[in-house]
């Protein structure tokens, strides 16, 4: 046990810091709507009082370290009508300006207008290109995962960004770097992030600071959302079974999501996203040349080519006073595939399969600046654990329970042997492995040539795990110095 603790501490100390700006700021000026005079001492509340600031002698206010996403801004001042605006967008790494004109009588407040401080077209310091995808975009686009949404952005082909190789991108989740250093070029992070869990995602290309030294072709930064101040949820089921021919890939998807307050100001959000399809690769089998083959009339779904993806995640947001907030986050993904192999075309019991398990656990302690401070100090302390396991080998034929769902874990033949890395045990034949025999007739009764009656015994396994400890602090030394 002592050796395990020492190893965990060593990993935490030696892990390379890789972070992204997952919060933004809000600044503005509060004035009298009739005279234009600055209002000193006006109170600005964010999200029902979770964050509070007051205006200075010039009527200016400033809020730092606000989580990216939609927020509610409320401004109050004695003798003036309360001003309230919902849906103010805070973008990661940017300062949003919202000026407020308050009326001394009960009149409608002028709509807040959020604009960027700098014009990105004229900013001489901008060396990178950023494409942002908000929660509203994810709900509007016909996508079921973050990968699908990124694939629609300019300069993206599959998982390749701006001509770079697969695996050359850096992936940041809530400010914590998540990347499998062992097989990033072939396997990625192993995590699927459901759109219902995302507040904002951004893709940065072309230029990176030294802070993101591991990014070569692109930087993907994702901010997950906190629970709301009232309970709400969504349940959805998607299928393409009413379609026929090439339009029916046997697609089934179930989404269950809920978020809201638990006790006091503690909020929670949870999601379960399960999808499956009989044809996991959207490529139909070509039409058979022999007219005696029933598939000669047209394309068909490849046999032994189904797949399932199960993702479950949750987040707790725990305010610990006016300045401290703790966020606990967990995400797990299991992707399993039955892989089509031409050698076992008519032997689904012997075809290969693949299972990838990804797990992420993180804790985030956020320190907000003190109210009204001229030299505010803020910081973020993050602790994360990331693990990914990969299996590939011979599997049993799929046994579907509901639609394209099997409802069971994909078991690889010889999995325990691979997990133990028992090189001595593999010298002897493993149970179920053998030398395939040959067959010359297919079930359709047409000429064919394929392997059957046994499996050649394919088996592969690897696992990557990492503990990260990351600290980011910002101290303001003056009006223009951080």
List keywords for this structure.
482 residues; eight-stranded antiparallel beta sheet; mainly beta; 42% strand; five-stranded mixed beta sheet; 5 helices; elongated; disordered N terminus
How are the elements arranged and paired?
Elements: H1 2-14, E1 23-32, E2 43-46, E3 51-54, E4 60-67, E5 69-76, E6 83-90, E7 95-97, E8 100-102, E9 115-116, E10 129-134, H2 135-140, H3 146-151, E11 156-157, E12 160-161, E13 169-173, E14 176-177, H4 184-187, E15 198-205, E16 218-224, E17 232-239, E18 252-263, E19 266-277, E20 307-319, E21 324-338, E22 352-367, E23 377-394, H5 415-420, E24 437-441, E25 447-452, E26 459-475
Description:
The strands form six sheets. An eight-stranded antiparallel sheet has the order 17-18-19-20-21-22-23-26. Strands 1, 4, 7, 8 and 9 form a five-stranded mixed sheet that branches. The longest helix is centred in the N-terminal third of the chain and has 13 residues, at 2-14. It is elongated and about 90 Å long. The chain is 7% helix and 42% strand. It is mainly β and 482 residues long. The protein has helices at residues 2-14, 135-140, 146-151, 184-187, 415-420, and strands spanning 23-32, 43-46, 51-54, 60-67, 69-76, 83-90, 95-97, 100-102, 115-116, 129-134, 156-157, 160-161, 169-173, 176-177, 198-205, 218-224, 232-239, 252-263, 266-277, 307-319, 324-338, 352-367, 377-394, 437-441, 447-452, 459-475.
